[in-house]
Amino acid sequence: MREMWEDFVYRGHLNKSIKTEIQEAWLRSRKYGVNPHVQSATKILDSDELAELQQLNHELICISLPLMENLYSFVKGSGFLVILCDEKGYLMKSMGDKETFELANRIKFIEGASWSEEAMGTNAIGTCIAIDGPIQVWASEHYTEACHPWTCSAAPIHDSEGEIIGILNMSGPVEKVHPHTLGMVVSTAAAIEKQLQIIEKTRGNAVMKSLLEATTDTLSEGMIIIDTAGKILKTNEILHRIIGKKEHELAGRDICEVFDNRFFQEITASRANVMDQEIKLKISGSERQARVLITSKGIFQNKKKIGKLLTIKELHKVRQMINQFSGNQAKVTFQDIIGQNEKIRKVQLEAIAAARSDSNVLLTGESGTGKDIFAQAIHNESDRRNKPFIAINCGGIPRDLLGSELFGYEDGAFTGARRGGTPGKFELAEGGTIFLDEIGEMSLEMQVLLLRVLQDKEVVRIGGYKVVPVDVRIIAATNKNLHKEVVKGNFREDLFFRLNVIPVTLPPLRERRDDIPRLAEYFIEKLATRIGKSYSEADPQFFEALQRYDWPGNVRELQNILERAIVKGNGWKLGPEELPAELFGNFCAVVKEDLPMKDEIKKQALVRSIDLCDGNYSRAARHLGISRSTLYRQMEKYGIR
């Protein structure tokens, strides 16, 4: 073997009878530029670096040392060293006979030294790393001459991903070589890997347990895990809060003993899953109850059912979430209501007083006066401000659907009904306010059902039989005179009295003309931003025209007219020419139509129109709805210059 080594080192000839692993290792060693005559390791960590390396591999060292000691016990006194290296070939721990340590020290085969192929050429440690497999390197198979007196056997240690994390090596005098030595090293390395796997699995189980604990306690719903016999294995904090019991009071108990509901007997016995089943949860030995939605799902291991997972959602929490995401919230407060007119200020004071009670409110007034705005403001001023505000237009929903909207329905109540049923607006508004707009459009049949809810404070879903208590404040609104509707037989008198506890009547916009400029400025700024235009000013005659108009559609019409003007306008100044002709008042009709009126009235109408348009005859004619030639003829007729 020595001759073959010399032949390669000095002449570059590679004898093909040499083991393939050694041939390839020698070639790599030459490629790395390793000096075959080096007398000792050249790459050695200082004490601080070694300590850091050992700390980094603390777990591997702790697991390996007992097994290394066991291995050494078989070869003790025979001149062998047992060594643990990291994945790069640095010696981390060693044990063995004193005399062998002295020999090893001469070639710096010591803790902290690198014995990778790049550093020391072919050797059991470095070559084991290179081939990722066990190997025995004997005498002159070593690339560096200083190692020729040694025989070394090494095996890799892998993690659970199959990556090398360390090397176990046993080295001794060349004359002590034995084929079983490598087998002992391989077996010990495998034992180390096994121990690592056990610890990793234990750690994984601990991590999973911690994750399960963290997950279950951060759920927004109660959770119970039961075995196939119905015994409670695990619960979470939300469940403890819902039922008023601690984990130690529940663990190991039969779920049917904890809850006084037949439902739990059924799901324990059944293999079927349950999705959002609504029940009244009753706790055995307690008066505590809660309306909840329960979902149960089987837990399987290797296709065998080992238990069930139950999730319990408090119904009022579910409703809160539905309201949050469906926008069932009032956004307007009394501070947002624009107006300094004496009438609107008086109405605001009445509404504020109404908000501070819990009585039903009836808002009346023409269409577009802002009844929905006042309803939101009343809710936000009340003690129910943090609860849902749900608005429903009684005139905008078909009569045959209004009942299911208000009161909900059960599974199978009618063709097309959602599976599992659905709660109505009264249930969703629990604790809050329901705004019944256009209450005057409600059918007499539906009025009977609504009256029952007002009297009994409870609802029964359509197609169902369960009574659901509701705590809801009602604000109703109408543009009709309900007194007259009662006389006509279109509205129930008893329902009217129930709703009309606190009447609030909103004034039409024509009775608060001094508020029109304020409202207009607010809408112009808001609408211009939305449309993407910027108006720095408006012509005074623009506001004058707005104030003169009677606004049959009230504030809603004002907003629509302003939006039309902004879209139509030039983007920097609003003038009366942006307004429709009807806003010029009756004198527009006087000029446009050939009505028998005094000439002086017609003349005043023409003058007023031209004045509003800053003397621009084309604009005046356009907004009067007549041709320019007609305008000129009438100007000439009345001597207007």
Structural notes for this entry:
The structure is a single chain. By secondary structure, the protein is α/β, with parallel strands linked by helices. It has four domains: 2-200, GAF domain (Beta-Lactamase, 2-Layer Sandwich), CATH 3.30.450; 219-314, 2-Layer Sandwich (Beta-Lactamase), CATH 3.30.450.20; 326-505, 3-Layer(aba) Sandwich (Rossmann fold), CATH 3.40.50; 513-637, Helicase, Ruva Protein, domain 3 (Orthogonal Bundle). It has 27 helices and 21 strands. Strands 2-1-5-4-3 form a five-stranded antiparallel beta sheet, sandwiched between helices. A five-stranded antiparallel beta sheet has the order 7-6-10-9-8. Strand 8 and strand 9 form a beta hairpin. The longest helix has 40 residues, at 179-218. The chain is elongated. It starts with a helix and ends with a helix. Residues 585-598 have low confidence and may be disordered. This is Sigma-54-dependent Fis family transcriptional regulator. One of its GO terms (molecular function) is ATP binding. Keywords: ATP-binding, DNA-binding, Nucleotide-binding, Transcription, Transcription regulation. Residues 337-567 form the Sigma-54 factor interaction domain. Residues 208-278 form the PAS domain.
